[in-house]
């Protein structure tokens, strides 16, 4: 099992000061900030093909309802929900660290794209600091 490299393909909101690409840059003090009304979506591609994913770790602030979806197609078109949860609020806008374990043979199997859906927040804006993915090395 290893870190699976991802890249941001699409974000439904854009603030050039806090781009969605910050969530996969490996720097803990950079982040992405939502803009305007919920929901917000970020689509990430798995670099190098598809991967059987066993764990996703999301570091954020202000997210209330979160959904993670996977796509196993060659294009990010048909997604299925693999995580749907409410995230506990942290005092004074503290960081939320959520770890999601996936069965590589079922929910985490053959992932080519991940979608992060921030369905609602505790405030008007939410932030995502980092998203890391662990699993098998990608295959083409």
From TrEMBL:
Coiled coil: none
One BP annotation, GO: intraciliary transport
Domain of life where this protein originates: Eukaryota
Gene Ontology CC entries for this record: cilium; intraciliary transport particle B
The name this protein goes by in its record: Uncharacterized protein
Protein's organism: Bodo saltans
